[in-house]
Amino acid sequence: MNYALLSDWVRDRVEEMVAMGVPRAGAEDAMHYVEVAAINAESEARKEDQFLFLFANIGADALGDRHGVKSHAIRARRRTILKKRTEAARSGLR
After folding, report:
1. What's the pLDDT score for residue 63?
2. CB 6 within 8 A of CB 39
3. Which 3 state secondary structure label does DSSP give 69?
């Protein structure tokens, strides 16, 4: 994610909201929430991508050893990620 681009986008949305009559403090608060949520979503997606990459390259057993959990927990996490992504793709979110 390009954080500078996101910051510029947020700043532009604040100005648009102010032009519509929203008090600047309220617009900044609202867009701060949007900015933080976007950064969190991107970070989570990156962690999931890395998890799926490692799963494909080293397998559930080795990944479980790295995280100190059983391989079935690793496979369950993979299923959860893939299900979430499938549902998002069906709804056009990703």
Report:
1. 97
2. yes
3. coil
Measured distance CA(30)–CA(83) in Å, rounded: 30
Mean pLDDT (whole number) for 64-84: 97
How far, CA to CA in Å, does 4 sit from each of 1, 29, 49, 60?
9, 19, 23, 37
Could you tell me which of 3, 28, 33, 23 has the C-alpha nearest to residue 13?
28
Average per-residue pLDDT for the chain = 95
Name the DSSP letter for residue 72: H
- Rounded Cα–Cα distance for residues 75 and 54 (Å): 12
Give the span between the Cα atoms of 47 and 51, in whole angstroms.
Answer: 6
pLDDT of residue 38: 96
Let me know: does 37 contact 45? Beta carbons within 8 Å: no
CA distance 14 to 34: 11
Angle between helices 24-67 and 71-90 in degrees, nearest 10: 140
